[in-house]
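SAMPLE LOG
Freezer: B-3
Tube label: C17
Construct: single chain, 302 aa
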Amino acid sequence: MGATLRAHPTLWLLRLLWLTMPWSAGAAAADALGVCSQSSARILSAELWAAWALVLTATFVRRPWALTVVRIATPASVGVAIGSVVAAVAWDANLPAQRGATAIVGAVVTTAIALLPETGNSFVDGLSYGNERRMLLRTPFLLAVAPVPLVWAAVVAGTTAPLVLWAIEQWIWAAVATVTGLTSAVLGFRSLHQLARRWVVFVPNGFVLHDRMATREPFLLRRADVASLGPAPADIDLGADDLADISGNALGPVLLVTLDGQVEVVPRTTGTAQVMAVSRVLFSPTRPGEMLSEAARRRIPR
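STRUCTURE (predicted):
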């Protein structure tokens, strides 16, 4: 019950905006489909309604997989809105300029809300129970620059291309796209989903850093062992033997936790797993200020 009550207002705003999507991007898409054959228009319309219903359902399921669905689908709605406007203009469909602008702006705002850290934290915190709380870690810089957008594009293309080709009765290409596209979509979804499973987990006796991209196993930092927690100094020596850096060079503030003692960390590197005993750890939550406030509430030293 506690996790349910912690739903952030941005998540409720996302639900509201997605509920209105049929009257913004959906209306533009309907105008663009007016130039298609009746059978194709009906099939494409049904597919759009099914996608809308899936995402709406996901917004009410506070789980990491639902966050992944939402963060794949909402940027795709921007493409649907822009594509509908462009298609309507190219095919001389009767699409009022105000409706086209509303469709694009509505999709862009919905996407921005879905990508907010507060929205992501509210989704993953749905897994928490009792006195727990989960907060996402930032996407590593090298992944955010190119791999993530490219994998997202592969997932969207692999999902939508077969549906469109079946709808317009391109049977051979549709069959090929179904095999190749859905395979790439499934693999891409699994890859993107790993980003929604990287978090800080506050537990009664401290907090756990759970990042399978950086370490082979999650590790607990006990409140009794924490000497300090706060922003990392700019001149910190990243090559120090007593330091583990799992921040992934993510953009934004990085936090440093210093321990009275050591914790065992197993970095995810090539070759044989190597256990490191460290007394300092660098990491990068999506909302460092909120993370520090939660730590203060739990009497973790700063």
